[in-house]
Design a protein that fits this description.
There is one protein chain. The chain is an all-beta fold. It has a single domain (4-144), classed as Sandwich (Immunoglobulin-like). Helix content is 0%, strand content 49%. The protein has no helices and ten strands. It has strands spanning 4-9, 35-38, 44-51, 59-69, 80-87, 92-93, 99-102, 108-116, 120-129, 136-144. The strands form two sheets. A five-stranded antiparallel sheet has the order 1-10-9-5-6, with no helix packed on it. Strands 2-3-4-8-7 form a five-stranded antiparallel sheet, with no helix packed on it. The chain is globular, with a radius of gyration of 14 Å. It starts with a strand and ends with a strand.
Length: 145
């Protein structure tokens, strides 16, 4: 099932970063982004890619984020990134926690185990943390069928 992008915005999220090994699942770089959002502060552009479907779908997904500086469009590779799937209408997230690691390309981060287990509007609440700077964040919403 394919998901439809229904809204994109940026909001405050507090979460911790995770450090783990590179996942074996990859998201095809050649596909179009499922969405693009700006971080709450406007400092970062975040492109969202999904697998196995072009946009996040019901079930377990792998999400690749490409983060670029708004100042010069260069990839930003020194971030700690977290992804929290959240269903606003139901007031809950998923029972599993996605694992986010740096991807192979500069500015790329891969989140595995993103479980969107029921139909409806899901937000991906993305935290972008940089050493010595205030955390930033972005949100992107998908209507999952």
């Amino acid at each position: 099932m394919k998901a439809r992008v229904v809204a994109a915005g940026a909001w405050l999220v507090s979460a911790c970063s995770s450090g783990a090994e590179q996942p074996s699942v990859t998201v095809d770089r050649g596909t179009d982004a499922a969405a693009m959002v700006w971080s709450r502060s406007g400092a970062y552009e975040v492109q969202v890619y999904s697998a196995p479907d072009p946009a996040p779908a019901r079930g377990v997904n792998t999400i690749r984020l490409v983060v670029r500086s708004a100042l010069n469009a260069r990839p930003v590779s020194d971030l700690n990134v977290d992804v929290l799937p959240w269903m606003p209408a139901m007031g809950h997230g998923a029972s599993t926690t996605p694992v986010v690691v740096a991807g192979q390309e500069a500015g790329s981060y891969v989140a595995t185990n993103v479980n969107l287990f029921m139909p409806g509007v899901w937000e991906l609440r993305i935290t972008l943390a940089r050493s010595g700077a205030e955390n930033d964040d972005a949100r992107v919403s998908f209507d999952v069928r």
